[in-house]
Amino acid sequence: MDVNTLLDYLPLFAQAAVLTIGIAAMGVACSLVIGLLGAIYLYFRTPVLRQFFAVYIEVSRNTPLVVQLFFLYYALPKLGLVLSSAVCAITGLAFLGGGYMAEAWRSGLEAVPPLQFRSALSLGFKPIAALRHVALPQAMARAAPALTANTVFLIKETSVVSVVALPDLVFVAKDLIGASYNTSEALTLLVLFYLLILLPVALAAAALERKLRHGEFGT
Asked: What are the tens digits of pLDDT across the range 40-87?
C-alpha cells in the first residue's frame, strides 16, 4: 500500500464521489415521487392507472438495473431518443427505485385504519386533504423503515452506472487500476468513499425512524 499513491488518487475519487452523490440524490428523489404516486393510485384502485402501475412495479423490480441502463443508453438511440450518461443513470435509478418505493408507500397506506380516512371525510375533508393531513403522515411513519432501506439500496446501486460511461466512483477505480495496476490503493479508496457516503445516510435513516416512531400517537 503506497500512501503517496493514495494521496494522488484522492482528488479523483472526491470528484467522482460528488457526481455519485448527485446522481444518487436525484434518483432517490424521483423514485420517492414515482413510488408515492403509484401507491396512491393503487390504494384508491384508480382504473387504468392502477393496472399501469401494477405492471410497472413488476417490470421495474424484476429486471436488473444494468439491463435497464443498457436499454436507456444503447437501445433508445436506435429509436431516435439519445440520453446523456447522467440522465440515463438518474432515469434508471428512478425507474428501479420507483417500484420498490411504491410498494413501501402502499404498505404504509394500507396499514392506516380505513376508519381514519372515512372519519376525515365525514368531518368535511376533501379526499386529497384527508390523504395529505391524515393518512400520509401515519403511512410515512409505518413505511419509514422500508423507505430508508430502499434509499440505501439505491445508493449502492449507483455502483453499476459506470456501464454507461459515467465517471462515478467505480468508473474511476477501474480506470486507475487499468492504467497503473495500483489495485490495492484504488479499491481501498473505493471502499472508503462508499462508506463515507452510506454511513451518514444509514445513521440519519435510523434517527428518522426513531423520531417517527416516537411521534406516532405516543407509541
From this structure: 999 888 889 999 999 999 999 999 999 999 999 999 999 999 999 999
Cα dihedral angle (61, 64, 65, 70), rounded to 10 degrees? Answer: -130
CA 30 vs. chain centroid, Å, equals 8
| Cα gap 56→50, rounded to integer Å | 10
Distance CA 69, CA 75 (A): 9
**Positive or negative, the Cα torsion across 17, 19, 25, 28?**
negative
Dihedral, 22, 196, 160, 8 alpha carbons, nearest 10: 90
DSSP state of 76: G
Place of cell 453499476: 160
Residue 136 cell numbers, joined? 400520509
**Domains identified in the chain and CATH numbers:** 3-215 (1.10.3720.10)
| Each residue's pLDDT tens digit, 121-151 | 888 888 888 888 888 888 888 899 999 999 9
